[in-house]
C-alpha cells in the first residue's frame, strides 16, 4: 500500500457526472464511487440526469493520487490541473467507462469519454499546494 502524505490545507472536492438517457444511473454512481475509492461523501445529490458527490477533505483524492503514480501520468495530470486552475479551484476530467472498471484515464477534452467524463473539481485557499501534493514530484 502506498503511503500518502498528509495535506496541510483545507480542501473541498466535488465529483460529478451527467447521466445520459441510455445509461443506468447506478452504473454512473458506481464509476463515481470508484474514482473516490468508496470514501463516504459529505453530501450526495442524485437526479435523473446528474450525480454529484461532495467531500470536505483530501481523502476523496487518495485513489487518484495512487493511480496516477501507478500509471506514471503524474506530469500530465499536473499540467492539466495547472491549465484548468481558475482562482482557488481546478478540475480534472476522467473517462467514465474506465472509472466504472476501477481504473483512471485522464481526459484532456470532454469528447474523449464517449458518454461524457466524470468531473473532479478541487477547491482550496491554497490550490497550488494541493496541486503540488496531488501531482508533484514522485520520489
Give me the secondary-structure topology.
Elements: E1 12-18, H1 25-35, E2 43-47, E3 50-55, H2 62-70, H3 74-83, E4 89-94, H4 96-100, E5 106-107, E6 118-123, H5 127-135
Antiparallel strand pairs: 1-3, 1-6, 2-3, 4-5, 4-6
| Helix-strand topology string | EHEEHHEHEEH
Radius of gyration, CA atoms, in whole angstroms: 14 Å
Q: What is the name of the CATH architecture? A: 2-Layer Sandwich
Major sheet attributes = 6 strands, antiparallel
Continuous helix count: 5
Per CATH, the class reads: Alpha Beta
Strand order of the largest sheet: 2-3-1-6-4-5
What is the overall pLDDT average?
94
Number of domains: 1
- Unreliable stretches covering 5 or more consecutive residues: none
SS class: alpha+beta
Q: Fraction of residues in helices? A: 25-40%
Q: Which strand-content bin applies to the residues?
A: 15-25%
Give the number of DSSP strands.
6
CATH homologous superfamily designation: Ribosomal protein L5
CATH structural fold name: 50s Ribosomal Protein L5, Chain: A
Structural features, described:
The structure is a single chain. This protein has one domain (12-135): 2-Layer Sandwich (50s Ribosomal Protein L5, Chain: A). 32% of the residues lie in helices and 23% in strands. The chain contains five helices and six strands. Strands 2-3-1-6-4-5 form a six-stranded antiparallel sheet. The radius of gyration is 14 Å and the shape is globular. It starts with 11 loop residues before the first strand and ends with a helix. The mean pLDDT is 94.
Amino acid at each position: 500500500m502506498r503511503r500518502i502524505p498528509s495535506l496541510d490545507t483545507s480542501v473541498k472536492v466535488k465529483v460529478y457526472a451527467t447521466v445520459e438517457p441510455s445509461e443506468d444511473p447506478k452504473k454512473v454512481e458506481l464509476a463515481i464511487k470508484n474514482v473516490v475509492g468508496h470514501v463516504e461523501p459529505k453530501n450526495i445529490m442524485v437526479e435523473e440526469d446528474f450525480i454529484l458527490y461532495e467531500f470536505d477533505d483530501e481523502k476523496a483524492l487518495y485513489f487518484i493520487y495512487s493511480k496516477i503514480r501507478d500509471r506514471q501520468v503524474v506530469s500530465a495530470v499536473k499540467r492539466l490541473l495547472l491549465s484548468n486552475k481558475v482562482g482557488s479551484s481546478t478540475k480534472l476530467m476522467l473517462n467514465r467507462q474506465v472509472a466504472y472498471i476501477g481504473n483512471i484515464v485522464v481526459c484532456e477534452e470532454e469528447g474523449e469519454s464517449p458518454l461524457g467524463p466524470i468531473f473532479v473539481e478541487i477547491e482550496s485557499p491554497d490550490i497550488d499546494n494541493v496541486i503540488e501534493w496531488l501531482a508533484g514530484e514522485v520520489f
